[in-house]
Design brief:
Layout (H helix, E strand, L loop, with lengths): L2 H13 L2 E3 L2 H7 L4 E5 H5 L5 E7 L5 H12 L5 H16 L11 E6 L3 E6 L2 E6 L1 H6 L6 H12 L3 E7 L2 E9 L6 H10 L3 E5 L4 H11 L3 E3 L4 H13 L4 E5 L5 H6 L2 E5 L4 H6 L2 E3 L5 H17 L1
Parallel strand pairs: 2-9, 2-11, 9-10, 11-12, 12-13
Antiparallel strand pairs: 1-13, 3-8, 4-5, 5-6, 6-7, 7-8
Helix pairs in contact: 1-13, 2-13, 4-5, 7-9
Bound molecules: adenosine-5'-diphosphate and magnesium ion.
């Protein structure tokens, strides 16, 4: 495209809340055949909330909530924030919100899995099934049923283990964005296929995927795994775009032919992307491609 055409399209994009960082992004976007979407915060609203909670062993709700808060308060993950908020509400409900919280020692973040630490002499783990497997915590039948049932309802489960015994769990929901399924079907009409990659588990990812009508789902992928998925799709011959919001999406945003960041996302993702969707609305994925198609057809 000529510098003038790029300038016009970039200006038009900016006025629509689609920030295009340079001519390459604009020239590549019209060739996109596959779009890979991150799940949390991209296809979903990204504001998880706890909808249920259950104890699996003899432990007081006070101890359970206190330990969960002590561990998760140190985590930046949105799921951790939802769990802390819910545990706080439970403490309030029972009138022990003013009781002293214990501090966690040896706190550690396990990306894509959860957190670990020690409260007094007790080892505590808060996270998903994978975290429990990493620490050889057995998942009994009752826990397994609770987790599976919730995952099939598109919820993510957070398990809390104390001394290698699962004490309880929370089910978290993060609703899909209202425009998600319409955008995906519109993309299909443009002969663009949609794929989801997420660090979350397969059951939850598949359930969310069918809610939005996505073509393919890849779950339990770490940040580099997301980038590998992009490269794999490129090797199959497609020009690939990635849409994401998290730090864990940045390698994939860089690997993609066009990386698009959700405006409400992390600075790291915004920096890694070629295009920023300032309104955080998925319809602007189509806006960006349209702008590129129009610019490129005017040139040829
Ligand atoms: P995504 O790719 O969907 O943005 P992440 O890679 O950040 O997901 O996390 C994947 C999964 O790891 C989450 O769905 C959750 O089950 C688990 N997880 C990560 N951090 C935490 C935490 N602090 N507390 C509980 N669970 C966590
Ligand atoms: Mg995300």
């Amino acid at each position: 495209a000529t510098p003038t055409a790029v300038m016009v399209a970039t200006g038009k994009g900016a006025s629509l809340g689609v920030l295009i960082k340079g001519g390459n992004a604009l020239q590549n976007a019209h060739k996109i055949k596959t779009i890979v979407f991150d799940k949390t915060g991209t296809l979903t609203v990204g504001k998880p909330a706890v909808v249920s909670f259950q104890l699996f062993c003899v432990i007081s709700e006070e101890d359970f909530c206190g330990m969960t808060i002590a561990a998760e308060i140190n985590s930046e993950h949105p799921i951790a924030k939802a769990v802390v908020e819910h545990a706080r509400l439970l403490r309030q409900k029972h009138g022990f919100e003013n009781n002293q919280l214990t501090e966690v020692k040896d706190f550690k973040v396990h990306p894509g899995a959860g957190v670990s630490g020690k409260i007094g002499e007790k080892a505590i783990l808060v996270g998903n099934r994978r975290l429990m497997q990493m620490f050889n915590v057995p998942i009994g039948g009752e826990v397994d049923t609770y987790v599976s049932e919730n995952e099939h309802l598109a919820r993510t489960c957070v398990l809390v283990a104390v001394e290698e015994i699962i004490a309880g769990g929370f089910a978290v929901t993060d609703p899909v964005k209202p425009e998600a399924s319409l955008v995906i079907s519109y993309l299909r009409s443009m002969h663009i296929s949609s794929v989801m990659v997420t660090g979350d588990n397969w059951a939850t990812a598949t359930a969310i995927g069918s809610q939005v009508g996505i073509d393919r789902v890849f779950a339990e992928t770490d940040p580099l795994g997301k980038a590998d998925k992009i490269k794999e799709l490129q090797l199959q011959g497609a020009s690939v775009a990635m849409v994401g919001d998290g730090i864990n999406d940045s390698p994939a945003l860089v690997a993609a032919d066009v990386g698009m960041a959700i405006g409400a996302g992390t600075d790291v993702a915004i920096e890694a992307a070629d295009i920023v969707l300032m309104k955080s609305n998925l319809e602007d994925v189509v806006t960006a491609i349209d702008l590129s198609r129009k610019t490129m057809s005017r040139i040829r």
